[in-house]
Amino acid sequence: MFWEIFVPIVLTIVGILLSGLRIANEYERAVVFTLGRLRGLKGPGLYWLIPLGIQTQRKVDLRTNTVDVERQETITKDSVTIKVNAVLWFKIMDPVKSVVEVANYYAATYQIALTSMRNIIGQHDLDEILRERDQISKILQDVVDKATDPWGIKVEMVEMKDVELPEGMQRAMAQEAQAVREKRARLIKADAEFEASKKLTEASALMAANPMSLELRRMQMITEVGAEQNTTTIVMMPSEFVTLAESMANMFKAKAAAPTQPAAD
Q: Does residue 54 sit in the same domain as residue 75?
């Protein structure tokens, strides 16, 4: 009769004690409360809690969490409407604070990242956002990290994924880029022509000092034209012949224009 009563009691007590056993993985910590009062951390590995609801726990994952900040329509400092999205990586450094200081650390971190991104974008011009994206991401990381520090959360990195511009702004930027490329091409062409003119000036000075070089150049040009298998070959006359012909023409014109003397009686 005694054993019929004692054995069930012992088994019940053993079952209750065993029900208090818990296991936390290497990347987990359990924040333990005793009758609602904070008692500290448990884990990793096997640990025991007072059963029957006397002690309760909240497990916290210590691994890095990834938050995809959804695309937000934001107005820049120069009044351009853009859509920006980002990715946030954060890690819990103090499990107790992440449970006690904030109701839902994941949602709170997400909302802070969302509002901070919109505020920071509004403080920069469009050109700064497109050109200095890494610096703006760093500023956003510092702001979110400072806001979540009281919750025991460390923001490891923030990256802006994409910046979507209005269609009209895309066309305007494309036209601006085209104009810049055309300007650069014209400057390069002008520099090339300037350099060529300098070389031609130097070459003309050398040829003027040595007339035979000009004749050799003419002969080389005739050879180059003949090598092209053209049906027409142009033979260039020396410049002295042209000068002589021009002088003779001027002399004949002067004689023709001179008044005739009347015959003497």
A: no
Cis geometry, peptide bond prior to residue 44 (ω within 30 degrees of 0):
yes
Q: Check residue 92 and report its DSSP letter.
A: E
Q: Does residue 246 sit within a domain?
A: no
Same domain, 74 and 57: no
CB-CB neighbours of 162 under 10 Å: 9
Domain count, the chain: 3
Give residue 74's domain range: 65-165
Are 41 and 25 in the same domain? yes
Sequence-separated (6 or more) residues with CB below 8 Å from residue 25: 43, 44
H helix intervals, the chain: 2-18, 95-100, 105-121, 126-131, 133-148, 167-209, 211-227, 239-257
Residues 115 and 77 reside in one and the same domain: yes
Q: How many Å apart are CA 12 and CA 23, to the nearest integer?
A: 22
Q: For each of the chain's 265 residues, which pLDDT tens digit applies?
A: 666 777 777 888 888 888 889 999 999 999 999 998 999 899 899 999 988 889 999 999 999 999 988 888 888 888 888 888 889 999 999 999 999 999 999 999 999 998 898 889 888 888 888 888 888 889 999 999 999 999 999 999 998 888 887 776 667 667 777 777 888 888 888 888 888 888 878 877 776 777 666 667 766 766 766 666 656 656 556 666 667 677 777 787 777 776 655 544 4
Q: In this structure, are 144 and 57 located in the same domain?
A: no
The structure's pTM equals 0.62
